[in-house]
Amino acid sequence: MNHGFVRLASAVPSLRVADCSYNAGQIALMMGKAREMKVAVVCFPELSITSYTCQDLFRQKRLLDEAEEALRRLLEATRENPVVGIVGMPVRYLNVLLNCAVVFLRGRVLGVVAKTFLPNYNEFYEMRWFTSVAHVPEGRLWLAGQQVELTRNRLFRTPDFTFGVELCEDLWAPVPPSSHLCLRGAEVVFNLSADNDLVGKTAYLQTLVEQQSARCICGYVYSGCGFGESTQDLVFGGKSLVYENGARLLFRHQRDTMPHLEAVEVDIDRIRAERMANTTFSAASEQVKDMQVGMVQVDDVVRMDMVTDTLTRWVNPHPFVPSGRHLDLRCEEIFGIQTLGLAKRVEHTHARHLVLGISGGLDSTLALLVCARTTDLLGLPRHTIVGVTMPGFGTTGRTYNNAMDLMKTLGVTIREISVKDACVQHFKDIVHDAAVHDVTYENSQARERTQILMDVANQMNGLVVGTGDLSELALGWATYNGDHMSMYGVNVSVPKTLVKHLVGWVADRGENAEESRILRDIIDTPISPELIPADEQGNITQKTEDLVGPYELHDFFLYHFLRQGSTPEKIRYLALHAFRGVYDDAFISKWLNTFIRRFFNQQFKRSCLPDGPKVGSCSLSPRGDWRMPTDASSEAWKFQ
């Protein structure tokens, strides 16, 4: 493996009904192609040596003999091939016929897995020819001149991962065999299938595979019969699917006459990390602790020796931001969670007003929009929202005007309280030169603003709504006991890359054109705390992303560090793929080191966070999501 990845493939070969010699030859050719692609394991469709649609020919000794001879020739043809192959064929055993998957490597049969659940409806009446493995005892059999074991449950352990196999209808059962196999250690499941095409069936199949891979926290590789199968009554379009813990990595439904071999990398480290974090998974393992499982050690499988530019799977550069219609659904859901969370807090505290600082930036804008929706939900007038704009030494005309215009458009109560005089007096009190624009100069303004908000809330029996987001908390980009503090933080688990889309989502549904115009301009404004004076032209001089790095990178780092438990080396590796052509290695490495340093050093700010609603799988609340010593060393995570 390379950074936990293993390359797996789903193959749909050309075939002829009942022509075992031809079919085995086509499979051997695809095995050779899989070797060229550095695939570790390749899965072929159900009954791929004979074809699935042989019907009563399965009762013919000639066909069964030909199938076994074809397997023998396939094993001989792949004796020097270090790729594990999984093919389907009928296997005779104790005077019954089993629908089996044969797992082989370098000319040796590693194991035979027989189908458990046989369909008995009109188009698939497998019970006419085959017997379920559940109805026969375990034992040994001769196959292609080799003696192999037949068991109901079998796992195959390679140096890099462990996998199991099930066949077609097994997946459609209420409790598929793969559920038990995964609880006993399978990290990837291969499914040899003969799934015919029907209107709406492909979408349902995708849902099945998606849910099974998510429920079992596994990789799932599916290969379905394609062109060449009999079309007497059914058509087989040839489907290849690969899912990883509910996420689709690959889908191809060819519906053409050509064979295809589709390969993609599955992240085994991610699967292991998810399982360790999911206590339900480990608890469920107790239910199958007495299940007998045969284990086959596979020591000669091809090793992944990829270089950086050979990762073929897509790596999402913005893992917190879905695309297309999913983005609209995500924004609507998050906005609803924020609103309900704040509504409950208002109801519980009997607050008469919602007080928040409005800077004209993205975070305070989102918080204000949430407040507006909350008052609407509770049937309160919007003037119970008190938006306080607090110009400081770095406030620019653009942000000030946007803040004022937005509050007017939304119909909230506006208060303007400058922090300049109070800060000047404070500098005198602590004997600080106001010409020195250091951390004291900056943080004094942030803490003065927080004091104003708290005192205004006291005046009006109000509740201070926090505006800071998840990305700022990860980096510690907040003034301790300044903007770091509030009475309820509505943006606390919303990453910066998503804040922009949430504001844009509201802009698209704006109550009027003026509101949408203001929101669009806020989105286009550079991110800044505006604590340093503007330039001579009144432009922002203190740009956050120039100081701490691009938020899209930091959100990428945060997701893979927090959600996947990835090492810094793997995060860099993934970032190089996700941002290829955008950022180079040196740039990514620089800001990754910054992220690691700041994430560890700034934990003390997260240890005393105000309450706030969790909206996604990544959150830094010290009460339930991220518990870390404030003095933990980052030495082991430093990236070279």
What does this structure look like?
This protein is α/β, with parallel strands linked by helices. It has 20 helices and 22 strands. The strands form four sheets. The chain has an eight-stranded mixed beta sheet. Strands 15-14-13-12-11-10-17 form a seven-stranded mixed beta sheet. Strand 6 (120-121) and strand 7 (124-125) form a beta hairpin. Helix 1 runs parallel beside helix 2, helix 8 packs across helix 9 (362-378) and helix 8 crosses helix 14 (496-508). The two termini are 21 Å apart.
Q: Report the count of strand segments.
A: 22
What's the N-to-C terminus distance? 21 Å
Query: How many strands, which pairing sense, and closed or not: the largest β-sheet?
Result: 8 strands, mixed
* Low-pLDDT residue spans: none
Oligomer: single chain
Number of H/I helices: 20
- Estimated structural class: alpha/beta
Widest beta sheet: strand line-up: 8-9-5-4-3-2-1-16
Report helical residue fraction.
25-40%
- In terms of DSSP E residues, the strand content is 15-25%
Q: What gyration radius follows from the Cα positions, in whole Å?
A: 31 Å
**CA-based shape:** elongated
Mean pLDDT: 92
Question: Which key features would you list for this structure?
Answer:
alpha/beta; elongated; 640 residues; 8-stranded mixed beta sheet; 22 strands
Task: Describe, in short, the structure shown.
The chain has 640 residues and is of the alpha/beta class. It contains 20 helices and 22 strands. The strands form four sheets. It has an eight-stranded mixed sheet. A seven-stranded mixed sheet has the order 15-14-13-12-11-10-17. The chain has a five-stranded parallel sheet with strand order 20-19-18-21-22, sandwiched between helices.
